[in-house]
Here is the input.
Amino acid sequence: MVEKAFPLEVYGGGPPDREELELEIWLAALQEPAAVFKPFGSDWPTTTLPAFDAAWCAFQQGETIGRNFDLRIRQAFFAEGRNIGKREVMLDLAREAGLNMEHFMRYFNNGEARAAILEEGRLGRELYNVRGTPTIMLGDGTKLRHPMAYAKIHDGKILSVGRLPCCGEGCYKTIRELFEKTIQYELKENIQEQ
Here is the structure.
């Protein structure tokens, strides 16, 4: 599995919209009952680019470290209400996570992280027609639909919500099917390469 950045504020509809996100949080909570959500305070991020930069920097220390740190950023935002748009918050999180700060800071300060995430987003949009997140796809660009209910929001109101295909542990079967499709694709690709 390869994860790529797709900053919506650059390639989508702008910076995170607080009203829209607050409307969707209850929907996310229904789909993942074990998740913890905290109401957001007054310190709302006007950008998420520092979070993207920090996650990219953590991935330079290893895939497991990067994934764990990416999850830590999401927990800080959704479960703790921290402003992930501030560089100092990202530095605090990196220290709390025990990252190699010298290595982290080298990338965080030299602009390489920002250039990389902007390029990943550009390629996603131009080559694969990515329009939102998360977008799950096979190596050939075939998009896989993950089990989510989508809300239709207009003028700050939820007009409708799609059918919830599963909930919590009930999604295991659907997620397993996504993994099986991915494994079959990878096996096919490996056979063709030989």
